[in-house]
Amino acid sequence: MSTLLEVSGLSRSFGSVQAVNGIEFSVGEGRCVALLGPNGAGKTTTIRMLAGLLKPTSGAIKYAGQSERADVREGIGYLPQSPAFYPWMTGLEFAVYAGKLCGLGGREAGRSAGEWLERVGLKDAAKRKIGGYSGGMKQRLGLAQALIHRPKLLIMDEPVSALDPVGRREVLELIRELKRETTVLFSTHVLHDAEELCEDIIIINKGDIALQGSLEGIRNSYRKPIIELTMEPDEGSSRWARELVASVAAGQGGSNPLLADAMLQGNELRLSVREMEEARSHLLRSIVDNEVKLVRLQAGYSTLEDLFMKVVRI
Amino acid sequence: MSKGGKKGGTSRYGALLGKEMLELARSMKLVWVPLVFVALGIMQPVSIYYMPLILEHGGNLPEGTVIEMPMPLPSEVMSGTLSQFGVIGILVLVLVYMGVVSGERSSGTASLILVKPVSIMAYLGSKLTAMLLLALLSLLCGYLAAWYYTDLLIGKFAFGEFLGSFLLYGLWLAFAMAATLLFSTILRSSAGAAACVLVLLALLSIAANLAPHFAGWLPGALNSYAAQAANSTIEYTDVFVWVIVCTVLLIAGAYALSCTLLRNSATID
């Protein structure tokens, strides 16, 4: 797998606020990469620097096979968070215009625009003014105009977060098709979208990379056995749960070799365990001894969601 | 990527200019801005011709008052028209174009355009071209209308004088448009840009009138040169040449500075 994009030491500050803090990552050719993080993590800032709209305070962005004189924008298609078009243009006119700006000749721009509008499902609306388009239609037009010159890398900023469930599904399906043809990098704050589409994820938080790697690798190496308990909201059960959490917190596992982490939310107790068999029988004994009124007990493995919440909360 | 259909920078400039002209047509600016100039151009000769009649009917004058006004020369009417364009005409043009760059940047369309492999020179150049075309077209329509009515109501006005004063005044409008482009690039606020341009133009005109020896070579002097050209009292001195050269250089400089500022700004969109 060859590297298409290499980012090193990329930083950007706005006044005293450090929005992006020396991040490093690379994007392999043909991969689909999600830039994942909560709101305000620095996703949009990073994306805008990659698209060349914002100058980095320091650091380098290198596209593979890029000679000194070549315009990196030739190889990039970019879809901003909420694309703003000229409302007085029709969808077809804008797509043709975008094609011409990418250096396509008049006839080729027209042909390519027609093809892409058909692919994104805007064939019937192609001759209507963009001012009358819905949010989903604008997003799909945004994809068409970004792809009109067949870029090597498609960069999207929150492509689905402003859409209703139907529009969201449509755009996700489109991205799923497109990622077979081109390298895709998009930002999102929804883990589910990343899990559904991507091979690689980069989780960023407060301008730093919290975690990155292939989705499979991360899922395997961070998969931890967990036990979830639900109790009735009576005094005795709550006290037992609080003491258990306190003992794990105090000993950092030292006094409690079986439990790595414990978290109490209302009547739900989440336990990360080191060794499932022993921990389960130990817990069950403790529950019986302390007459805890158990509603539900479930043993399983942590999800990516748990990991995401954990790295992002730090 | 196919190499066959790729074209150079000029075709991109062409596409950008095509979009600007289409926008002018769709927003009807290509119609109503020249119409404003036509209205201004007609108003001057017509109001001068009917002035005695207007005073007679409008004022609280006693019965039997005789008003006699000497009819002004056609050249005076035409130069008066130019000063009408200088106030309301320029105001309209500046207001139409005050957000020419800042508007696209704040609405977000600039970010769609400038991630494409388009040079900033072509982007701003297409805008300046469209601005100049609209300004000169409006001036031509308005000035022709003034000429027609002056000819009809007041007297003959020669073509040579018409062309000379049109070109000189057109250069002043071109300078105003270049200044609008520059301030719209510098400032994020359209209203701020309009205010700066109008103040700058007013200062230049006043300076040229008050201190012709110091500010006589600045674009502000074009106003009085255009009026002189209409009155055929123009003297082609060294200073006159300087005004032309200086204005052309300032227009080019404003364009170049806009390009540099936009290219070096931290956020392009």
UniProtKB/TrEMBL annotation, chain A:
<dbReference type="InterPro" id="IPR003593">
    <property type="entry name" value="AAA+_ATPase"/>
</dbReference>
<dbReference type="InterPro" id="IPR017871">
    <property type="entry name" value="ABC_transporter-like_CS"/>
</dbReference>
<dbReference type="InterPro" id="IPR025302">
    <property type="entry name" value="DrrA1/2-like_C"/>
</dbReference>
<feature type="domain" description="ABC transporter">
    <location>
        <begin position="5"/>
        <end position="231"/>
    </location>
</feature>
<keyword id="KW-0067">ATP-binding</keyword>
<dbReference type="Pfam" id="PF00005">
    <property type="entry name" value="ABC_tran"/>
</dbReference>
<comment type="similarity">
    <text>Belongs to the ABC transporter superfamily.</text>
</comment>
<dbReference type="GO" id="GO:0016887">
    <property type="term" value="F:ATP hydrolysis activity"/>
</dbReference>
<keyword id="KW-0547">Nucleotide-binding</keyword>
<protein>
    <submittedName>
        <fullName>ABC transporter ATP-binding protein</fullName>
    </submittedName>
</protein>
<dbReference type="InterPro" id="IPR003439">
    <property type="entry name" value="ABC_transporter-like_ATP-bd"/>
</dbReference>
<dbReference type="GO" id="GO:0005524">
    <property type="term" value="F:ATP binding"/>
</dbReference>
<dbReference type="Pfam" id="PF13732">
    <property type="entry name" value="DrrA1-3_C"/>
</dbReference>
<dbReference type="InterPro" id="IPR027417">
    <property type="entry name" value="P-loop_NTPase"/>
</dbReference>
<keyword id="KW-0813">Transport</keyword>
From TrEMBL, chain B:
<dbReference type="GO" id="GO:0005886">
    <property type="term" value="C:plasma membrane"/>
</dbReference>
<feature type="transmembrane region" description="Helical">
    <location>
        <begin position="239"/>
        <end position="262"/>
    </location>
</feature>
<dbReference type="GO" id="GO:0140359">
    <property type="term" value="F:ABC-type transporter activity"/>
</dbReference>
<feature type="transmembrane region" description="Helical">
    <location>
        <begin position="30"/>
        <end position="51"/>
    </location>
</feature>
<feature type="transmembrane region" description="Helical">
    <location>
        <begin position="121"/>
        <end position="146"/>
    </location>
</feature>
<protein>
    <recommendedName>
        <fullName>ABC transporter permease</fullName>
    </recommendedName>
</protein>
<feature type="transmembrane region" description="Helical">
    <location>
        <begin position="194"/>
        <end position="219"/>
    </location>
</feature>
<feature type="transmembrane region" description="Helical">
    <location>
        <begin position="166"/>
        <end position="187"/>
    </location>
</feature>
<dbReference type="Pfam" id="PF12679">
    <property type="entry name" value="ABC2_membrane_2"/>
</dbReference>
<keyword id="KW-0472">Membrane</keyword>
<keyword id="KW-1133">Transmembrane helix</keyword>
<feature type="transmembrane region" description="Helical">
    <location>
        <begin position="81"/>
        <end position="100"/>
    </location>
</feature>
<keyword id="KW-0812">Transmembrane</keyword>
